[in-house]
Amino acid sequence: ALSQALLGIAANAWTSWMSDLVPPRQRGRYFGTRNTITSITAMGAAWLAGRGVDYYRAAGSPATGYALIFAVAVVAALVGAFLLTLKPEPTIRRTPRVQIAALFTAPVRHRSFRALSLASAGWAVAIGVSAPFFNAYGLQTLKLSFASLAIFSIVTSAVALVTQPMIGRLQDRYGDKRVMIVSVIGTILLPWGWVFATPTFLLPLWLNAAGSGIFWPGITQGWMNLVMERAPSENRGAYVASFGAMTGLGTFIASLLGGAIATALNGTLIHFGPFILNHYALLFIVSSFGRSIMALVFARKL
Which helix (H) or strand (E) element contains residue 82? Predict the structure, then answer.
């Protein structure tokens, strides 16, 4: 909880910071290129982490493997913090002192930003209800290793290397909202890749991994660009924090809801043609329908 709280503070400050540094008409291209670079790093990190966990599990000491990964992550975070000190910061303009109550209520009273925050919370529920269970399903039902799961992540990142710069240009040309709606529609079928996969038939997971690399960048980049666009320059930090709080609330609700459904349906098996759906697979289907609903919400309300 403490780490997530501190991460939230850092993320809010970073988003406000970057909105001052990157011109609005260049955000799509900039973040597309930036995310491509981070994807390359993520591919290597995911593969090495998966191999490390599998190695130590085979040696009978999985705790050592996890501890080593966390230690490397801490060192990487410290290096990242140092690199942030080298990044320029615009001159802070002095503004009239604002009451705390006004900082809390301003994002709620801002109609456009309020709609964006509520949409983010709804999207967090739609994807979060199943998000914690994909890896568990892969390990328990599909009998995948950690290294295999990492390979699917690498495929997603590899595809994103190509799509992210393209999506950035599309965002600059057609707008973040349009690109995001198309991307959300593209993610509707992705959970079904896990539903249709079996231990001996993993093609749906390969398609899922490729589809994730195509459609998710338009969503992750889109949220960031829309927050920067709709948050006023005055008291922007308060708006970014409010957006993060609403998204976090949606994630919290989704975690409780997903856990409750998984517990209630534990042991349930539903025969769907040649497929057998357990409680995890049912959550994936729920998430797919939730994404469909949010696509309509985005088109009408965002």
Answer: helix 62-84
Cα–Cα distance, 68 to 50 (Å, whole number):
12
Q: Where in the sequence is the domain holding 209, given as residue range(s)? A: 19-89+106-301
The span from the CA of 65 to the CA of 281, in Å, is: 29
Q: Which residues contact 255 (CB under 8 A, 6 or more apart)?
A: 128, 132
- Mean pLDDT over each residue of the chain, to the nearest integer: 87
The answer for 270, left when phi > 0, alpha when psi is -120 to 50, beta otherwise, is beta
Residue 94's pLDDT is 67
Q: Per mean pLDDT, which range of 1-5, 29-33, 214-218, 263-267 is the poorest?
A: 1-5
Whether the predicted model's global pTM rises above the 0.85 cut: no
How far apart are the C-alpha atoms of 158 and 156, rounded to whole Å?
5
- Residue 10 covered by a domain: no
Residue 182 in any domain: the answer is yes
Q: Does an H or E element contain 277, and which?
A: strand 275-277
